[in-house]
Amino acid sequence: MLSTEPQVIAAYVDTGKVRYVYYPMLDIGDTQKAYEAAECAGAQGAEHFWSLHDVLYEEQGRLFRPSTDLFVELAQRAGVPDLAQFRRCVESGQFAAKATELDRLRRAAGIRLRPTLKVGDQVLPGAQRFERLAEVIDAALAQR
Prior knowledge:
By secondary structure, the chain is mainly alpha-helical. The chain has 2 domains: 1-23 and 109-144, no CATH class; 27-95. The chain contains 7 helices and 2 strands. It has helices at residues 5-13, 31-42, 46-58, 68-78, 83-92, 96-108, 130-142; strands at 116-119, 122-125. Strands 1-2 form a two-stranded antiparallel sheet. Strand 1 (116-119) and strand 2 (122-125) form a beta hairpin. Helix 2 (31-42) packs across helix 5 (83-92). The two termini are 26 Å apart. 24% of the residues are buried.
Protein backbone atom coordinates (compact mmCIF):
# COMPACT_ATOMS: atom_id res chain seq x y z
CA MET A 1 0.00 0.00 0.00
CA LEU A 2 2.92 2.36 0.61
CA SER A 3 3.58 2.47 -3.12
CA THR A 4 -0.10 2.78 -4.10
CA GLU A 5 -1.12 5.27 -1.41
CA PRO A 6 0.77 8.27 -2.88
CA GLN A 7 -0.79 7.59 -6.28
CA VAL A 8 -4.31 7.53 -4.81
CA ILE A 9 -3.62 10.70 -2.85
CA ALA A 10 -2.21 12.53 -5.87
CA ALA A 11 -4.97 11.45 -8.28
CA TYR A 12 -8.00 11.70 -6.01
CA VAL A 13 -7.36 13.37 -2.65
CA ASP A 14 -5.17 16.28 -3.76
CA THR A 15 -7.60 17.01 -6.60
CA GLY A 16 -10.54 17.16 -4.19
CA LYS A 17 -12.37 14.19 -5.72
CA VAL A 18 -12.34 12.04 -2.58
CA ARG A 19 -11.72 12.31 1.14
CA TYR A 20 -9.04 10.07 2.62
CA VAL A 21 -9.62 8.81 6.17
CA TYR A 22 -6.83 6.98 7.93
CA TYR A 23 -7.99 4.51 10.58
CA PRO A 24 -5.37 3.18 12.99
CA MET A 25 -5.57 -0.51 13.88
CA LEU A 26 -4.92 -0.74 17.59
CA ASP A 27 -4.87 -4.50 17.98
CA ILE A 28 -1.20 -5.32 17.31
CA GLY A 29 1.64 -4.43 19.69
CA ASP A 30 1.63 -0.87 20.96
CA THR A 31 0.12 0.59 17.83
CA GLN A 32 -1.91 3.13 19.81
CA LYS A 33 1.23 4.94 20.98
CA ALA A 34 2.66 4.77 17.46
CA TYR A 35 -0.51 6.33 16.06
CA GLU A 36 -0.44 9.01 18.78
CA ALA A 37 3.18 9.76 17.84
CA ALA A 38 2.17 10.19 14.19
CA GLU A 39 -0.60 12.59 15.26
CA CYS A 40 1.92 14.52 17.36
CA ALA A 41 4.13 14.83 14.29
CA GLY A 42 1.10 15.89 12.26
CA ALA A 43 0.38 18.67 14.75
CA GLN A 44 3.47 20.32 13.25
CA GLY A 45 2.16 19.92 9.69
CA ALA A 46 0.22 17.20 7.89
CA GLU A 47 3.29 16.22 5.88
CA HIS A 48 5.01 15.25 9.16
CA PHE A 49 2.18 12.84 10.03
CA TRP A 50 2.78 11.01 6.76
CA SER A 51 6.58 11.10 6.93
CA LEU A 52 6.53 9.63 10.45
CA HIS A 53 3.78 7.18 9.40
CA ASP A 54 6.12 5.86 6.71
CA VAL A 55 9.10 5.60 9.09
CA LEU A 56 6.95 3.82 11.69
CA TYR A 57 5.81 1.37 9.03
CA GLU A 58 9.42 0.70 7.99
CA GLU A 59 10.46 0.25 11.63
CA GLN A 60 7.42 -1.71 12.82
CA GLY A 61 9.63 -4.48 14.19
CA ARG A 62 10.93 -2.01 16.80
CA LEU A 63 7.47 -0.89 17.95
CA PHE A 64 6.67 -3.51 20.56
CA ARG A 65 6.84 -1.64 23.89
CA PRO A 66 8.39 1.45 22.31
CA SER A 67 9.76 4.27 24.41
CA THR A 68 9.26 7.98 23.94
CA ASP A 69 12.97 8.13 23.09
CA LEU A 70 12.41 5.72 20.19
CA PHE A 71 9.55 7.84 18.87
CA VAL A 72 11.72 10.96 19.11
CA GLU A 73 14.53 9.18 17.24
CA LEU A 74 12.13 8.15 14.48
CA ALA A 75 10.53 11.60 14.39
CA GLN A 76 13.96 13.14 13.89
CA ARG A 77 14.58 10.74 11.02
CA ALA A 78 11.19 11.69 9.56
CA GLY A 79 12.06 15.39 9.66
CA VAL A 80 9.71 16.53 12.42
CA PRO A 81 10.99 20.06 13.11
CA ASP A 82 10.38 20.65 16.84
CA LEU A 83 11.40 17.49 18.69
CA ALA A 84 10.88 19.00 22.16
CA GLN A 85 7.27 19.84 21.28
CA PHE A 86 6.90 16.38 19.75
CA ARG A 87 8.21 14.72 22.95
CA ARG A 88 5.81 16.73 25.15
CA CYS A 89 2.90 15.77 22.92
CA VAL A 90 3.76 12.05 22.95
CA GLU A 91 4.20 12.04 26.72
CA SER A 92 0.92 13.92 27.27
CA GLY A 93 -1.30 11.36 25.52
CA GLN A 94 -2.99 14.27 23.74
CA PHE A 95 -4.25 12.08 20.89
CA ALA A 96 -5.21 8.96 22.87
CA ALA A 97 -8.96 9.58 22.70
CA LYS A 98 -8.78 10.29 18.96
CA ALA A 99 -6.90 7.04 18.35
CA THR A 100 -9.45 5.05 20.34
CA GLU A 101 -12.40 6.67 18.54
CA LEU A 102 -10.93 6.12 15.07
CA ASP A 103 -10.26 2.48 15.94
CA ARG A 104 -13.88 2.11 17.08
CA LEU A 105 -15.11 3.64 13.80
CA ARG A 106 -12.81 1.33 11.82
CA ARG A 107 -14.25 -1.72 13.55
CA ALA A 108 -17.82 -0.46 13.02
CA ALA A 109 -17.06 -0.05 9.30
CA GLY A 110 -15.98 -3.70 9.12
CA ILE A 111 -12.32 -2.96 8.42
CA ARG A 112 -10.29 -5.81 9.89
CA LEU A 113 -7.25 -6.16 7.62
CA ARG A 114 -4.39 -3.79 6.88
CA PRO A 115 -4.43 -2.28 4.34
CA THR A 116 -8.12 -1.92 3.50
CA LEU A 117 -9.82 0.70 1.41
CA LYS A 118 -13.50 1.43 1.68
CA VAL A 119 -14.98 3.14 -1.35
CA GLY A 120 -18.65 3.92 -0.86
CA ASP A 121 -20.13 0.64 0.33
CA GLN A 122 -17.39 -1.49 -1.22
CA VAL A 123 -14.59 -2.77 1.04
CA LEU A 124 -11.31 -3.71 -0.66
CA PRO A 125 -9.14 -5.68 1.79
CA GLY A 126 -5.46 -6.26 1.19
CA ALA A 127 -2.97 -4.53 -1.05
CA GLN A 128 -4.46 -3.46 -4.38
CA ARG A 129 -2.88 -2.24 -7.60
CA PHE A 130 -3.47 1.45 -8.32
CA GLU A 131 -5.29 0.54 -11.52
CA ARG A 132 -7.82 -1.55 -9.59
CA LEU A 133 -8.36 1.19 -7.02
CA ALA A 134 -8.76 3.80 -9.75
CA GLU A 135 -11.39 1.61 -11.44
CA VAL A 136 -13.40 1.28 -8.20
CA ILE A 137 -13.04 4.95 -7.25
CA ASP A 138 -13.97 6.16 -10.74
CA ALA A 139 -17.06 3.93 -10.74
CA ALA A 140 -18.14 5.29 -7.34
CA LEU A 141 -17.58 8.88 -8.50
CA ALA A 142 -19.64 8.25 -11.62
CA GLN A 143 -22.59 7.15 -9.43
CA ARG A 144 -22.66 10.41 -7.43
